[in-house]
Amino acid sequence: MKNLLCQNLGVDVSKDSLDVVLSTLDMERQVRVKASRKFANTPAGIRQLQRWMESKRTAEVELRILMEATGIYYEQLAWFLHQQGYQVSVILPTKAKRYLQALGHKSKNDSIDAKGLARMGLEQLLPLWQPLSENIYQLRLLTRQLEDFSNQRTVFLNQLHALHHSAFAVKQVDKSLKKMVRTLEKSIQELEEAIRELICQDPLLAERVEKLLAIKGVGLKTVAVLLAETNGFATFEKQGQLVSYSGYDVVENQSGKRSGKTRMSKKGNAHIRRAMHLPAFSVVRYKEPAFTALHERLLARGKTKMQAYVAVQRKLLILIWTLWRKNDVYDPLHGRRHQEQKRDIQLLEAGASLSGKGKIRKIQNNRLTFKTVPFFAAHPAAFVCPGSGPPPASSTDRSPPPTAAACAIPTLLNHHIFSSSCRRWPPIYPSCGTTQIQRLLSLTA
Fold first, then answer.
1. What is d(CA 280, CA 211) in angstroms, rounded to the nearest whole number?
2. What are the structural domain ranges in the chain?
3. C-alpha radius of gyration, the chain, whole number
4. Contact by Cβ (8 Å): 375, 352
5. What is the CATH number of domain 4-123?
6. Which of 20, 211, 224, 294 lies at a 20 to 30 A Cα distance from 102?
7. How many angstroms separate the CA atoms of 410 and 434, rounded?
């Protein structure tokens, strides 16, 4: 049909069945249900769904497929359709629920959900689903199984602790709990070794993971969980996307004059937040500069300790994503060096424009360039440096000779204008070597 704009297949996925609705959007922006049916959520049922879909669709019009991320029950269908070349989108159930509520639906069943998904796919341009690679999929299975075993081990240890403090102890219960704990600990060790071997199988992956482990407090299990849950950070181009996906985004509650409580959404991948919990404590305990500064700053503002640690989790997650994306080596003093360079530039500009009429723009070929008449040009004696000879012959000559360019920092240093930036060497001008002054000048290049 020539008046069709697009068509979409909405699929409501459950453990045993697939409810599908095929809807179309015409040139008049009218959404119409073309066909609907129910299939078994099995390989045979999925192939039958494909044949039915091809018989009902319009070949000349774009077809998209939209489904909910219902546990793991959607993965078999999504993988099959993706391999067949269809455009598949997968959304969170919460997003589909909010859309149906916006349409005014009060009832809920599989047929209504499938119809709503088909309409949603026609009205919105949703991102296409990107399947996990085989290695990442295996890594996700291993890390999630490791998480489950660790939680079960904690449960049994708590029961064992309660049993030892009870009024009457039962030896059989004590023996069974200890046996379960030993079994789980052995399984946990095997899973950790399997994760390590899977990462080491790929030399490029192992090299990049090793760079992340340079952060004190970040271990192999943490990195493995992050890679498994984010598909190796493949689908995140901006840090805000990763923050929102992980549930660290901030939710405001404000309307008119009322200002409600601002909180973290926690609407995201809980596996990532659980994996970042202990590393946040570790980076602060090991005094990693950037995280320690953030933690202390938030505490000074009156935030609770847990709020400060959650902020550290968010910052650590962004740092790991940045290092992975740039394939860069972790530098614990990167932020501090950046701040020092910025401060040195500001101090250098303040000294150059002390009279309020000049400011350094840049340094090229050992010559200072000024926006206006600088203090240096108005005071040629300021160019006199130890061993550099007499000052320039003319006060209108704003360019010191090459031999004195390194000494262009005037005797104002004696007045401690640059005292804070000269912490690494004595602030008194005669004791500042030429090499150190050149280093300070190079910061504005």
1. 18
2. 4-123, 238-253+260-332, 336-442
3. 32
4. yes
5. 3.30.420.40
6. 20
7. 12
